[in-house]
Design goal:
mainly alpha
Amino acid sequence: MIGMAGGIEPEGHILRGPPFQPIAGQALAETTRSIDDCFRLLEGLPHPMQWTVRGVSIVCGWTADDPLALALGAIARSVDEGELSAPLPYHNRVHFCEVVLGAHFLARSVNLEPAQHTELVVAAVIHDLGHDGSTNRNEPFRLERQSHACARPYLVRAGVSEVRLQRQLALLLATDILNGLPRARAWFHFHAGQGPRPGAPEPDPVFELMADAPDLVRGAVMLTEADALASAGLTVERARLQEERLAAEQGRSVRAGDKARYLDTVFPDGFLLADLFNPNLEQIRRSAPPF
């Protein structure tokens, strides 16, 4: 298992039970409440990223044999110490943990193969490293490349291969909601036999990997939906809280129609792999103030 400080108990970790240990037939309301409660718990932890990574490692039985898993301990400590994260209202270490737990939940819910589960969790951990609180400023993938650059030294020191580094980059670039996410969803529809093959050119050469890697595409879609789960897939109250935090981070007030515009742009047809939460998403969409 991944060892780290922070007063984290190795036994009886909350992630051993539902909803992170999926139970067939569990009601959506119960799953939603349990995840929301876990996210609230994160707010009060002194070392939330270490707690989160430790819990996932316990559930998955990770060892130091996998370089990706090995890198997580060092990255988690650096995040909790503020070296790779800033105390921003929204894109902070608690948000990182929310995305990790969302990705972990989705991986467990579909019995994702262990290597892909590890790859997805690592991408969730690093997806917003070094976030500066602004947007991409009309420079596609600016923040996502910055996050990958922050993580790369840790991954290289752990022995992660260049092939896996490139897959991590593809996953991270997919979280650019205007440039990467639509492409990942298009590739997902293609591999699922639900749409045409996406035409050239790719928004970035690393997306060429998706043509022959449906597992990578699935991971990219899971990551983007885990990234949105806390703000668009749980309760109306949490969605509003997250909207307020994002507005504060960007130095603006909450604007009428912001949430509806976001959902209509990014998830016009709902979640693809987190579809369990589509009723919540639609409730949030309906509750959004009009334009």
